[in-house]
Amino acid sequence: MPRRVRYYFGRLNIIPVREYPEKRVLLTEGLRPGVFIQRYGVVWEFFEVNELMVGSDVYMHGYLVKFKPQSEEEIANRATHTLDKQTIRDLVSAKARFFLNVKSGLLAYHPVAGEIDREVFTATFVQLFQRAHGNFFIDAEIESINSRYRILDEIKKLGRITRVSVYLHPSNPNLNPVWQPIDEYMKETNSATYQEHHFAKAERGGLNVTEKSPIASRITMAEDGYGKADVTAEKDGDTVTISTKDRPETAFGLDDDTPPEQVLEQLAAAIRRITSRFLQ
Hints:
The chain has about 280 residues and is α+β, with helices and mostly antiparallel strands. The chain has helices spanning about 25-30, 120-130, 150-155, 180-190, 215-225, 260-265, 270-275, and strands at about 5-15, 35-40, 40-55, 55-75, 80-100, 105-110, 140-145, 160-170, 195-200, 225-235, 240-245, 250-255.
């Protein structure tokens, strides 16, 4: 019976070092077979990458695979009734399935407990993607997509806010009126990334982060997958930090024995919930 597995949502943000070709071509090149990373005796590579059409949307589907180029396994030799060693090549340790929307960069993936956690998946995915492009022509990052306004709701429960740090990328192609001014500013100034840090005055109260403040709009843009935001506060005598990267959107889909079209259909409601935030 198929198992339910938890998918996490992020956004693949591509930061061009120079002009690059059509996005579909760029993604296909970045996920091409034969590019690998080897570390600590383990190889990482993309496998079974293909395109799926859902209405007018194109998705890239595949697996991030972790395998050993050579390993020895114990086998039972029934002819001699002895236990022997057999060398097995390219034994798969784990694989993490993913779906990548070509137009928006929306990425759904499921980690594998104990083998490929969220941080390992996103870091390795980006390393492979950049290596496929020669580690020169582009920079790429995967940022979490978070439940809208969750950070702002949690801020209300904190004490004195002492620091807010925000790191953003320009959007492409989505847009939201909440953060449209800062997004347009980045594009007008040809900024690949944008950072700002706010520190509360020591002799006065904490930072004033209301829902209509410019800081809140930056946090919302980060929640939508175009960066990250960290908020530090004092609560009950302790220092507490909350971050957008710790609160990703998730949804359940069936395991890897399920055809990809069916899994994507199971994730459709969560995808619509995320994409409904943006002007189309």
